[in-house]
Structure formats: structure tokens, C-alpha cells
Amino acid sequence: MLGIRKEKEFTPIVTTSSISASNNTNKNWGPSAISADGSIVYACANNDYIYKSIDGGLSFQPLTSLPISLSNNWSDIATSDNGQYILASIGNTSDLFLSTDGGLTWSTKGGQKVWASVSMSSNGQKMVACNSSSSDTIYISTDFGNTWVATGSPSLFWRIVKISGNGNFIMAISISVSSIYTSNDNGVNWSITGTLFGSGGFTKLALSNTGQYLIINRVDGPTPYIYISQNFGTDISTTPVRAGGFGQTSVSLSISSSGQYMTYSIGGNTIGVSSNFGTSFTTNPGSLGSQNWRFSVMSSDGSTQLLGVLNTSIYKSTNYGSTFSALPTGTTSSVSTISYITTEFNRVNSTASKQIK
Length: 357
Hints:
The two termini are 20 Å apart. It contains no helices and 30 strands. The chain is mainly β.
């Protein structure tokens, strides 16, 4: 006997297309942050969005969900080791901007202040921020940025606050006094642990994972100075690295988790890298030359480092800062997609019956 069964046949159609991604070099780069492995980079563009890279700086995309006006200059940014948590501030009266999902969504925290500096621990659980426009305390969150409280710090015009990667050490510097304040108990108690040299404003600070090693910048007129400490800021090096430059906004500092690797960039002048805990620096590695450097970040182990130049290239090192190469201005990748054409047809089956007598 005959049977009819309806069947479908699927014919695959493969389509290959190219996707281009710009690394957005034509930007007025500002503060930046990087994940522990160096794969995720957040770079602030002044009067623009924060830009995110998930391929180690090769390509960047704007985080357009940020609830901001694009006429602001970013003052600071921090991220967790995995790049999930982001905390950013702008240089005029505003809230803090917090993302807990890698920049997909944002919330505002902290209230309307001129937030000058932000920082977070490696896992993102502890965050700190300070206000530079009025005599105020330093603020801290110990629940991944959800709630913020005032610490027990003195009320000063704070310029910088940073927390160590392990979250156990906080260092803060005020524009009112020439002292280094530190706390080892989540900001409940503070003590003066060091004295800063010279006049001028201290603008940048980077700490190792424990806070034992640090690199700090002071600007005296147009001249930036770089200081080093190898004992939690108790004694800042009395002989700073000195170079000319365009001023405080174009100085950037980075340090590895262990403190062994340090890099500074000074706009219009010098790059300096150290592989011996800041004891000595090599300037302009690989003959980079004088450029308007705007940011410096490095991975936790110091092997991957990125340097941003105003409106031009981003440079990358994968050998602990020994040499840097300019990243290409864009990338093109091929993406294949598969679709199917469906055809219906009838199949006729023949069956035989056996008669038993």
C-alpha cells in the first residue's frame, strides 16, 4: 500500500559581510581605566562619552546610555579588575556615575558636588570619592557603590583620593595642606603619614595593590614633577622627576598591582617607564618622542600598557613598557551568517502486507 508523508528540506545559505570598528583616535582623551587582564579599557573623551574597548584598545565604542550632557570634562574614572563596575566623575557640579554591568546601564550616586577624584578596590566592593569645590569630607561605599557615607576624614578641599586594590588602604591629598592622609579602617580614622614637597597642586596618584608603592604628580606652574614612595607614602622621594609640559590636565600615571612597574606621561613632553618599583625611569622608550600624551593605563601585572595622544593615535605595549606601537586607526573583520531556504514536499512510501493463511 502507498503512504504519503509531508517533509521539509533545509538548504543553507552562507553570507559573509565585513564589520568595521574605529578606534576613535580623533578624541580629546581624558581619564582612563583598564581591567586586570588588559582586555577592557574605558577612556573618557572630554565633551563626549566614555568609550569602551573589549579588545585591548584596538577598537572603541561610546557608552551612549550615560545620562550626561556632552559639554562636560571628565575628572576621573575607575573600574574593577573584571571591568564590570565603573565609577566616573566630571569636573563640575554633578552626581557620580555608576555602572555595575560594564556600561550597559548607569545610575547616579553621591549627590551634586564637584567630584574631583574616584577610585575602587579590585573587586569593586569598596569605592571612594572626594569633592574639591568646598570644605568637605571624603565619601566611601562598601557595597559596590549602592550606598555612600561620609568618612571620618577632616573637612578640607580634597584633590585626590585613591583606595588600594585590596581595599585596605586609602590615601587622600588636599589642595589646602601639603600632607598625605591615610586610613586603614574604611575611612573611620585618618592620620598624616607623609609631607609633600614644594608648592603647586598635586593632581594625580596611583597606588599598588597594597598601597605600599605609589607614584604621584605635582604641577608647579607649567612644570610637572613626579614623586615616588615605596613605604605607603611615609617618605616621598626628595628628588622628583622633572620635565616641561602643557600643565596638570595632561599628566597621567599608572602602576602595576605589585608596584614593580610604573609609567608616567606628560603632555607635550615625556614618557617615563620603570621596572624596579620607581627606583629609576627610562624616558621615551622606543623613541616615542614628544607628543600631547593624555592617558596612561596598564594591566594588573604591567605587561599590557596603553598611552593615548590627543586627537591622534593610541599606543600599546605588550612587553611591560619596553616598546610601544601605534594601534591601527580601525579594524575590519569578516562575519559569516547562515540562513536557510525551506522547501516542503510530499514523500510517497510503499509498504507491503503479508497474508498468513
